[in-house]
Amino acid sequence: MTAHDETIGSPGERLVQKQFGTADRAADFYDRQVRDHLTSSMREFMARQSMVFVSTADAGGACDATFRAGPPGFVSVLDDRTVTYPEYRGNGVLASVGNIAENPHLGLLFIDFTRHHIGLHINGSAQLRTEEEQRAEYPHLPVDAAPGRQPQLWIHVTVEEAYVHCSKHIPHLEPAPRPAVPDVRRPKDAAYFTEQEPACPAASR
Q1: Is 76 helix (H, G, I), strand (E, B) or coil?
Q2: How far apart are the first and last CA of the chain?
Q3: Cα–Cα distances in angstroms (integers) from residue 196 to residues 122, 184, 190, 193, in the given order
Q4: What is the crossing angle of helices 23-33 and 11-20, to 10°?
Q5: Domain-embedded: residue 186
Q6: Among candidates 46, 68, 69, 28, which has minimal Cα distance to 118?
Q7: What is the CATH number of the domain that holds 122?
Q8: In the chain, which residue ranges form alpha helices assigned H by DSSP?
Q9: How far apart are CA 175 and CA 170, in angstroms?
Q10: Which residues pair with 56 in a beta bridge?
Q11: Is residue 11 domain-shared with residue 73, that is, in the same domain?
Q12: Same-domain pairing of 40 and 121
């Protein structure tokens, strides 16, 4: 890819770059940073990561952002243009999977909060594959990424763009074990954000 490759960046990006006078800086970024494949450094970085943020949208453009985690390298690099990660049974909503079924465009964001404080964006096209389909083609995939749990699906991503997320404003976080004794005052997950709000007092006349 080069700075003059019109396939890099959306028309909206280029419009606001022109409005804000950043087109030259953006072109330099595209030229130096944006790749249509994973470099060896990107692949090594992904092998160390235990979390990723996932963005999808349905056919109408309604967006969803979610989070996935696992042991380091749970997002497997199949080759320099293909990555995959497992989907396990959750709350049954399947929001991101449903979006992918309508619209294959997907974004992944990996952030290293503890070591180098750097991020990696991957944008691409996703497919839904069964455990049987994916493992038949890629038998080397890990089988113990979530002990005791079996993937329901694999998200199979063809890389279209990969580029850096700079370290500015990435906080430093130290990994720590969960408290041995849970906070009894903490609401259960299903009720955490659903407590009934107090009724508004009647407006005075």
Answers
A1: strand
A2: 67
A3: 39, 19, 13, 9
A4: 130
A5: no
A6: 46
A7: 2.30.110.10
A8: 11-20, 23-33, 40-47, 95-102, 131-137
A9: 15
A10: 64, 106
A11: no
A12: yes
Residue 80 lies inside a defined structural domain of this protein:
yes
- State whether 21 and 46 are in the same domain: no
Q: Are residues 45 and 75 in the same domain?
A: yes
Domain of residue 11 covers 1-34
Structure tokens at 39: 């470099």
**One digit per residue, pLDDT tens: the chain, 205 residues?**
544 566 788 999 999 999 999 999 999 999 999 999 999 999 999 999 999 999 999 999 999 999 999 999 999 999 999 999 999 988 899 999 999 999 999 999 999 999 999 999 999 999 999 999 999 999 999 887 777 788 999 999 999 999 999 999 999 999 898 888 888 888 888 888 986 666 666 555 4
> Token pair of 155, please?
């998200």
Q: Are residues 113 and 165 in the same domain?
A: yes
Whether the CB-CB separation of 83 and 128 falls below 8 Å is answered with no
Those residues with Cβ within 8 angstroms of residue 177's Cβ, 6 or more apart along the chain or in another chain: none
